Amino acid sequence: MSEKVTKDQINSVLWQAADTFRGKVDSSTYKDYILTMLFIKYLSDAYKEHLEEYTKRYDGDEQRIQRALSRERFVLDEHSTFDYLYSKRTDVEIGEIINKALERLENENTGKLRGVFRNIDFNSEAILGKAKERNAMLRSLLEDFNKLTLKPSVVGNEDVIGDAYQYMIERFASDAGKKGGEFYTPSMASELLARLVKPQENDRIYDPTCGSGSLLIRVANQVPNKKVAIYGQERNGATHSLALMNMYLHGIDDAKIEWGDTLANPLHLEDGKLMKFQAIVANPPFSLDKWAMGFAGEGNTDSKFKMDASLDPHRRFEWGVPPSSKGDYAFVQHMLYSLAENGRMSTILPHGVLFRGASEGKIRQQIIEMNLLDAVIGLPEGLFYGTGIPACILVFKKNRTRKDVLFIDASAEGNYEKGKNQNQLREQDIAKIVETYDNWETIDKYSYVATLDEIKENDYNLNIPRYVDTFEEEEPVDMAQVKENIQNIKQELAEVEEQMEKYLQELGL
User: Which helix or strand (DSSP H or E) is residue 96 part of?
Assistant: First the structure.
């Protein structure tokens, strides 16, 4: 029996592989190569082990072996395995050999892997440098991964692979700093969104800006048997590929993750109309500039292009067109238009969406008057990659029976753990937020249930301090006690000076 490989051992080898690229290629880019190689290694090792099992079981009967292998999740030929790539690691054309192996892997598994590797090029001079340097990096990468055994019998629980993938994505997000937020939402923030949206069995779950797919996986994990349908869309091609691989490594083979601009070209449609979802989660790019340029038409680079609601065939902007420099409410309206009856939605947004005026103020008023906003939750600052600004979570519901809105201020010290580079939500912090939301209660200096009239009185401004008073009164100063303390200090000082004078006289000074 093979000795089990631990999560820490896998993580150690993966991070070692990252050293091959560090300092030569930007970490927000080289993550794609390492995570793709992890995916290939896992597929290869699983396939190799199944081949060994069937060879033994069918006593070398090639026809029966191949029939059994054809029923596996993924099919590989000899030239698309990791072992083949490793054997070619010193070949001067190793980059092209890897690319061809990926192409074969796609073609052999066209139903699942079509297009998964189209955005990654292991032979790219622009990214990996000239041939000599590129080949040296790829050889090191293959040698690092050769130290790793990912056979199912050695790994044990399949979640280990998915966890390793998540670990690496999170490490890369942290390493990539500002760019990290483009592909990863911190795990505990994802957990909070997932618990707030409360997915049910048979729900369609959707993330319109899904990044590497980790948030969708968190939501799916809330349903014990994971019997849900997963949908996502991602604009960045390489990140879209990561999302698909992430799904497969978590045992989700039927996720529908599309590649494209969600606002200008939403790809989840039914009969030409926006598909409806029971649960929607998202961490859209904060205040996306030029969000509407996809509506400008092919080749239109006019910087003065002005978005008009009539340009959207799905009529998502009839409540108002957000300013061209801030796409927050464009994403919110897209999600609300994609929400099924009785649907729930939670999304992370910058605080500006709570109080900015002009077109955003009008959209916000419409949403509130239509009784779609359920809760506003203020989060601590420094939680997210690439921005230190505090963010908030907005929770929306279709067919709400109540008219009031819950405000939670979870930003104060004690509601999170301070980190050196980044603050973190702890399990206790998430539990407190979710419990307060579930109980729909006012808690002194933490939460407040506001009536619609109160929100109207505030001109539909949702700035949290208007509703949750976190002001701490200072203790009253006892002036008589202060006076007495001063007198005591003066007396002690006089006694010290008198003693010093005696010492100086003794020393003859």
Answer: helix 94-108
Tens digit of pLDDT for each residue in 81-135?
A: 999 999 999 999 999 999 999 999 999 888 888 889 988 999 999 888 899 999 9
| Phi/psi at 445 (5° precision) | 65, 15
Sign of CA dihedral 301, 233, 348, 354: positive
Two tokens, residue 23 = 């300092």
- DSSP string across 271-312: TTEE--EEEEEE-PPTT-TTTTGGGS-TT---TT----GGG-
Distance separating alpha carbons of residues 366 and 368, to the nearest angstrom = 5
What does DSSP assign to residue 472? P
Is the model's pLDDT at 435 over the cut of 70?
yes
Phi first, then psi, for residue 325 (nearest 5°) are -90, 0
Q: Quote the CA–CA distance of 181 and 184 in Å, as a whole number.
A: 5
Query: Distance between CA 173 and CA 161 in Å, rounded?
Result: 18
- The DSSP line for 133-168 is HHHHHHHHHHHHHHT----HHHH-STHHHHHHHHHH
Could you give the CA distance from residue 170 to residue 187 in angstroms, rounded to a whole number?
A: 8
Strands 229-234 and 373-378, bridge-based pairing = unpaired
pLDDT digits (tens, 9 = 90+) for 42-79: 899 989 999 888 998 888 888 898 888 888 888 898 89
Contact (CB, 8 A) for 32 and 243: no
Start-end of H helices in 411-507: 427-439, 452-457, 479-506
Nearest to 212 by CA among 251, 172, 178, 177: 172
Max Cα-Cα span within the chain: 111
**H or E segment at 51?**
helix 27-57
Q: Are the CB atoms for 189 and 425 separated by under 8 Å?
A: yes
Neighbours of 5 (CB within 10 A): 18
How many Cα neighbours within 13 Å face the side chain of 178? 1
8 Å CB contact between 172 and 31: yes
Helix, strand or coil, per DSSP, at residue 407: strand
Residues in contact with 310: Cβ distance below 8 Å, sequence separation at least 6, in sequence order: none
pTM for the model stands at 0.86
Helix (H) or strand (E) holding 189: helix 187-197
Amino acid at 403: K
168 Cβ neighbours under 8 A, 6+ residues apart:
11, 14, 15, 18, 31, 34, 35, 38
